[in-house]
Design goal:
Elements (H helix, E strand, L loop, with lengths): L3 H4 L5 H10 L11 E5 L6 E5 L11 H4 L5 H13 L7 H5 L2 H14 L15 E9 L8 E7 L13
Parallel strand pairs: 1-4
Antiparallel strand pairs: 1-2, 3-4
């Protein structure tokens, strides 16, 4: 999965439209201020929330305070999947040897030196959307499964810790 901010650089009508979409509310038709993202095949979850006061360092800060946007979700997913995974972590030690082999294969295919969370996706690195799975009332955010699929648009080989 490539850094979402890189997808928004450049010019032209297509980039302008992509930027417009990225600043839309992540969940429609309601505008939420917090949601929990759950990742497939793992017990990983992260909470995405709008800050009380947006940071002026963020290029999309004017949209963040209003509600969680598409780019907020993509950036959080990207940062989370970029984090290293230690081979002595509970998720790793509880994985079967077949699962560990699949993760190592994904690491080798990515030509990485450090095992990262994205390797657990086993090549399914194209963002496929969010699916509401329950939890708190949907209008309060709730829990959302992050869906991934195989694809060439967002390539795991380009993932680098920034």
């Amino acid at each position: 999965m490539s850094n979402p901010a890189l997808l928004l650089k450049g010019s032209g009508e297509a980039k302008s439209r992509l930027y417009e979409i990225a600043l839309n509310a992540a969940v429609q038709p309601i505008r939420i201020h917090q949601l929990t993202l759950v990742f497939p095949k793992s017990d990983w979850e992260i909470i995405v929330s709008t800050p009380a006061t947006p940071s002026p360092k963020e290029s999309h800060s004017y949209a963040v305070a209003e509600c969680i946007t598409v780019i907020d979700v993509l950036e959080c997913v990207y940062m989370y999947l970029s984090e290293p995974v230690r081979e002595h972590s509970p998720g790793w030690t509880s994985a079967s040897s077949m699962e560990q082999d699949a993760v190592r294969y994904s690491l080798a295919k990515r030509k990485g030196k450090t095992l990262r969370r994205i390797d657990w996706l086993e090549g399914n690195t194209m963002f496929g959307g969010l699916e509401y799975i329950g939890g708190a009332a949907r209008m309060d955010g709730g829990r959302w499964m992050v869906l991934f699929r195989r694809g060439l648009l967002l390539n795991a080989g380009t993932l680098k810790k920034r």
